[in-house]
Write a structure and sequence with these properties.
The complex is a heterodimer of chains A (338) and B (301). With 338 residues, chain A is mainly alpha-helical. Helix content of chain A is 76%, strand content 0%. Chain A folds into two domains: 74 residues, no CATH class; 246 residues, MetI-like fold. Chain A is globular, with a radius of gyration of 24 Å. Chain B is mainly alpha-helical and 301 residues long. Classes of the chains: A mainly alpha (338), B mainly alpha (301). At the A-B interface, helix 1, helix 6, helix 7, helix 11 and helix 12 of A face helix 6, helix 7, helix 10 and helix 12 of B.
């Protein structure tokens, strides 16, 4: 059905800019509703009236709102996010510095979550109602109920303070600072590429606990969804047919049933990946992880609006991009949605 | 026949004589199903207990939640201070009891703001259809594609920290899910004969939406609200933890963890006790929501 496939793609191409426009509008409005006068933020509250008026003119605040919004959009689209008051660097440069650390954390957590969550979900579905199923369901339910920052704190208390199995908060031991030249910005990859195995080992030790905490949340979500998808498939008649034909149980489960849930499962994984970018805000605070989440919260507490809006926009765009990509995948790949 | 047996027979009668009897009978049958799921019953018990604690907080608290006494700071759990004391010598048990008011208050405020709005918008979109529907769905798309906590953070950054701003921020990201559900339900029942019959009798669109369509969307909405409550609790606690929700002297659970964090290695109870409170509250609503879904919305399980 090439026609409807084309239709799906066209619909998606309309949604993408519209949603991005919505994101820009929301961040613009957030910047406008704040009670801090942006002019005073620039010139200080003791500036004489003429300085104040000139700054107001320079910032374009005398223009009508729609024109201001238009200026804001064109600035953002050409990559001008403004300067951070806190670090006095351009916001975009800051984000490029901090984002790889978050990406590294979220990626490792997702890999762990998928490696454990998918088999757990399949197992629970195959043995529906058994003790194993109940144990897995219970574990995922806890994952949906426990606050991520509490789990991080308890993890630090148990594995760092009591058992001394992992190093404390932070990304790397201070002694190893600046040994590896950043290429991708992801310490694990950079140190491995440059053959600095001692740094690599230290970085692995540091990332283990925060990635583990995040992985538990993605595991809970992925296992729960995998179980639900598999249960739906295992009820279908083609599964019975395959069994009656004498096919091995393993082949029925992994090749026939699992093959059919692959597309929705990829969507779930991508969504949980996007969710981890958000979950990292709290995790990074607990583990003093120098990523985008920590940058965002520190800027928030310092009322550094350019940095806050820039980081929100970037996380929002990544989140949105992943969301829409899944949507596209669904519409184009899965013939049942047409 | 004893009175209980008579009541039971009245409830499960095949031919109910009044609307009220039919309604109560259905509720009774749903309760019978619900009762078998002991996890759901546990969830109901936890949720009710939480509500009771919040209502009776001044009676249950053993100490003044804000009374400082530096002589007894950071005491471990014991006979006088059941869950220990914090860095200013305040009783942690009493603070958690009073904090339940803040947490539940935020949850109720968000739900009251969001559920009716989502219901009306969703029903209207589903019933009216056409361009109105398309615009509403596009708007929900945009809001649902936002990372919830980050949007809440940005809002709070602009409006300033505080419980009310936290509630507004969470509400802004929560309503689209309800609108979606109400719309899906509306689309499913829009073509029913009873709707057509009511329309032929001259019922206006408003009357159809509010009196005929919206009530039928309620059960899926209730399930979603219950499941959402745990998410609201976690987001509210996260905001408090980052110092952007309730501000420190108030005994909000997330804010308590954020101050207790400094003592986690030596005085673990300061941060852990409110953490357990958040966990139990959120687990309770999750269990209750799962159980309600099995009863009210069997097709989704």
């Amino acid at each position: 059905m090439p026609r409807s496939r084309f239709g799906a793609l066209a619909g998606w191409l309309v949604t993408l800019p519209l949603t991005l426009f919505g994101l820009l509008l929301v961040t613009f409005l957030i910047g406008r509703v704040m009670p801090i006068d942006p002019v005073i933020a620039v010139v200080g509250d003791r500036a004489p009236a003429d300085v104040y008026a000139r700054a107001r003119l320079e910032l374009g605040l005398d223009r009508p709102l729609y024109e201001q919004f238009f200026r804001y959009c064109s600035a953002i689209l050409s990559g001008q996010f403004g300067r951070s008051v806190m670090t006095s660097r351009p916001v975009l440069e800051d984000i490029a510095r901090f984002f790889p650390a978050t990406l590294e954390l979220a990626t490792l957590a997702t890999i762990l979550g998928v490696a454990l969550g998918v088999p757990a979900g399949v197992l629970a579905a195959v043995r529906q109602g058994s003790k194993t199923d109940q144990a897995i369901r219970f574990l995922t339910l806890i994952g949906h109920s426990v606050p991520i920052f509490v789990l991080g704190l308890v993890g630090l208390l148990v594995f760092y303070a009591k058992l001394d199995l992992v190093p404390g908060p932070g990304r790397i031991n201070v002694a190893f600072d600046d040994i590896v030249t950043p290429v991708t910005g992801m310490l694990l990859i950079d140190s491995a590429l440059q053959g600095e195995w001692e740094v690599f080992r230290d970085a692995v030790g540091h990332i283990l606990l925060p990635a583990g905490v995040l992985a538990y949340f993605s595991l809970a979500y992925i296992a729960r969804m995998t179980r639900a998808f598999m249960l739906e498939q295992l009820r279908q008649e083609y599964v019975t047919t395959a069994r009656v034909k004498g096919m091995s149980e393993r082949r029925v489960i992994w090749r026939h049933a699992f093959g059919n849930i692959a597309v929705p499962l990829i969507t779930v994984i991508a969504l949980s990946y996007a969710g981890l970018l958000e979950g990292s805000v709290l995790t990074e605070t607990i583990f003093s992880w120098p990523g985008l989440g920590q940058y965002l919260t520190i800027s928030l507490l310092n009322a550094d609006m350019n940095a806050v809006l820039g980081a929100t926009l970037v996380v929002g765009a990544v989140y949105l991009g992943l969301n829409l990509l899944c949507d596209l995948l669904y519409r184009v790949v899965d013939p049942r949605t047409r | 026949m004893s009175r209980a047996a008579a009541l039971r027979a009245w409830l499960i009668a095949d031919t109910p004589l009044s609307r009220r009897q039919a309604r109560l009978g259905r509720l009774y049958l749903q309760w019978l199903t619900f009762r078998h799921n002991w996890l759901a019953v546990a969830g109901l018990a936890v949720s009710l207990l939480l509500a009771l604690i919040a209502i009776a907080a001044p009676l249950l608290a053993t100490h003044d939640p804000s009374a400082q006494n530096l002589d007894i700071r950071l005491q471990p759990p014991g006979a006088t201070h059941w869950l220990g004391t914090d860095e200013l010598g305040r009783d942690i048990y009493s603070r958690i009891v009073h904090g339940s008011r803040i947490t539940l208050g935020m949850v109720v405020a968000v739900v009251v703001l969001v559920a009716p709005f989502g219901l009306v918008v969703g029903c209207a979109a589903g019933y009216v259809g056409g361009w109105f529907d398309r615009i509403v769905m596009r708007v929900t798309d945009i809001f649902m594609a936002f990372p919830r906590l980050i949007l809440a953070l940005a809002f709070v950054a602009a409006l300033g920290p505080g419980i009310e701003n936290g509630v507004i921020a969470i509400a802004l990201t929560a309503w689209p899910a309800y609108a979606r559900i109400a719309r899906a339900e509306t689309l499913a029942i829009r073509g029913s004969d009873f709707i057509a019959a009511a329309r032929l009798q001259g019922a206006s669109a408003l009357r159809l939406i509010f009196a005929h369509v919206a009530p039928l969307c309620l059960s899926s909405l209730i399930v979603r609200v219950t499941l959402d409550m745990s998410g609201i609790i976690l987001t509210a606690a996260g905001l408090g933890f980052l110092g952007l929700g309730a501000v420190p002297p108030s005994p909000e659970w997330g804010a308590m963890i954020s101050t207790g964090r400094r003592f986690i290695l030596e005085q673990w109870w300061v941060a852990t006790m409110p953490g357990i409170a958040i966990f139990v509250a959120s687990l309770g609503f999750n269990l209750l929501g799962d159980g309600l879904r099995d009863v009210l919305d069997p097709k989704q399980t």
